[in-house]
Each structure stands twice: as structure tokens, then as C-alpha cells.
Amino acid sequence: MDIEKLKEFVRTKPVQAGVGALALVLVAGVIAFTVYLNGQGSNKDFAVNGSRLIVVKEGMTTADIAALLHEKKLVKNPDAFRMEARWKGLATKLQAGAYQLEGGMSNAQIVDTMVKGRIKQVRFTVPEGFTVVKTAKKLEAEGLGSADKFIAAAKNYAPYAYMQTDDANVVFKAEGFIYPATYDFPVGLSEEQLLKLMVDQFDKEMQASGVSKTVAERNLKLRDVVNMAAMVELEAVFAEEQPRIAGVFLKRVSIGMPIQSDTTIQYILGAQKEIITFADTEIKNPYNTYQNAGLPPGPIGSPSLGAIKAVLEPEQTDYLYFVAEKDGHHRFTKTYGEHLQAIKDIG
Q: For residues 227 and 253, is the Cβ–Cβ distance under 8 A?
């Protein structure tokens, strides 16, 4: 063996062995750290189901973001989130913006979303039959705006001719014209802009469905149709009954009989009441269709397109009364005596 090579081997072998040992330690450390991040980075047993809107503002540090995510029940361990971001060299690359994050996402998934700037539009649903007040409260509950500001905006908002009215008893001119649908829109819209978006959608749906054309051809007022449709929407649990209920209400109006819809009493009370009492029906209020003949001053909620069409194409029957069955369907009768018997039978 070459003596010089032997000397080199003796001289370098301990160093190489040390490097190998160090490498093993480092690898073991990396594996242990990765296992730790994966374990602490799972938020499934902590996060609340559903999506939440998170707004990362300019100037927020990784620690600020981690604390916000923890507060919103998205990240279990803020320190683990910070380490995840730093481990990937991304701590300074988290982008400001609004994110809609799903409960149960791992720290790695959240970091990836924020680094790539996957800023989603906000999704908001207006349920069928919702009032201005209910819509406003839902917006606020989902962190998308102020209920008070939305309510104030809806008070006199009537950009379309068919929405306008001189009736001083109308609570909200926009009531009934906030189209029930699911909306996707960018974060940051004002309450006025959100209201406009929903009312504009109503007009688009009326045009696209042919309702506007039908109303014009029959020389009807769209506001009156929507007014009736709102009561039909709230009375009918099942869509197939909407044309029949519309027929009953329209027949009552045609013979000068009060509409007598419990839904108008609930609108006055501002809350859903399971049983409307006789005393409730005697409340002095322009919206009380037990005490006042004809339509209420304005719609009492946002009717679906189906309810609006039901008013335009009602079922023609001799029925004047109906009462709710226990399963949500209604029993229809022709006379008041039959109506009383139906109430007794249902119990």
C-alpha cells in the first residue's frame, strides 16, 4: 500500500466518520421535526367545520397571522404554524388578502394557500322568503357587513320603477326585491353595493324568466305580484302547493275578503311564531291582513321565482280556506264550517 495514501486515509477517515455521524443526526433531526410538524399541523380535531373568512392585512407578521388563525378556530398550534411557514422558507411570502379557509385544513395547506395568493371570492346565500332584516343579520353574522348599514340602505332603495311607492307605511322599499340566490363577490363591497348586487339580480331574473313581459302584457304591477308572492312563499312549505295557495289568496281579494295570512302577522312581530293567537290578529298595523282588506303596503320577504310564477298562474279552485297539516302540507276547504272541522280534525 502507498504510504502516502495510507497517511491520507488515516488522516481523513475520522473526519469522514464524523461527517457521516453528523449527517445521520441531521437526518434524524429533520425526520423528527417533520413528524412534529405533521402532528401539530393537523387541525382536524380542533377546527370547527365550515368555511371562515380570514383577512390578512398588509404588515401582519407570521405570528399575527398564526394568532388570527388560532382565534378563528382554524389552527390548533400557532407556534407550529409559524414553524411550518419558516421551515418552507415562506414566512415572508404570505400574501395579504381575504381568504375563505375550510375548517380542518392542515397548516401546510393553509400556508400553501396564502403563499400562492389563492384569494377566493366570498359566497353568500339569501334564502327564499328572507326579509331585509334577516338578510342583514346573516350578512353580519358571516362577517360580510354591518346589519344596521344594510338595513338603512334598504329603507328607500328603489332603483327600478316597479319598486317605487308613495305609501308611507312601507317599511323597506327594497323588501321583496332582494333576489334569493347564492352570490359570489369580492371582499370589501359596501352594504350599499351588496344591496345593489342582489336587487340587480332580481331584475335580471324577471327579464330572463319572462315574468316582466307577462306582467306588462297583463297590465299588472310587478310590485303587487311580488307582494302576493311573498305571502305565498312563506305560507307554502312545499313548492307544489304554491299555485293553490296563490289561488286562494287571489280569490279572497277578488270577493273583498281579507287575505288573512299569518305571515303578515309574523312580519309585524319581527319573529317566527309557531302559533298566531287571536290577539295577534287584532294588532293595529297596516301589514295586518286580518284587519285590512287587500294587499299589505309592501312585500314581507323575498319570494322565489316559483312563488312569483304561482301568482301569475294560480290554481283555479273553489277553495277559500286552508290549514296546515302536521307534516307541513295544507288541507284546503271551501266553507268556513269545513275549515273549522279541518282544524278540529288536525288537532
A: no
- The residue written with cell numbers 410538524 in the block is 37
Concatenated DSSP letters for 230-246? HHHHHH-SSGGGHHHHH
Residue 60 buriedness (CB in 10 A; 0-12 / 13-18 / 19+) = middle
pLDDT tens string 38-95: 657 688 888 888 878 788 888 889 999 999 999 999 999 999 999 888 877 777 788 8
SS3 118: coil
Per residue in 213-252, pLDDT (tens digit) is 999 999 999 999 999 999 999 999 999 999 999 999 999 9
Residue 19 confidence (pLDDT) above 90: no
- Classified as helix, coil or strand, 268 is helix
Nearest CA among 236, 250, 247, 264 for reference residue 330: 236
**pLDDT-based confidence at 13, cuts 50/70/90?**
very low
Quote the CA–CA distance of 40 and 66 in Å, as a whole number: 13
Domains and CATH numbers, the chain: 17-118 (3.30.1490.480), 132-316 (no CATH)
d(CA 213, CA 219): 10
Distance CA 72, CA 43 (A): 12
What's the rounded Cα separation, in Å, for the pair 132 and 326? 29
At residue 21, does pLDDT exceed 80? no
| Alpha helix segments (H runs only) across the chain | 3-41, 62-71, 78-87, 107-115, 132-141, 147-154, 191-209, 211-217, 222-235, 242-254, 262-269, 278-281, 305-312, 336-346
Are 42 and 106 a contacting pair, CB within 8 Å?
yes
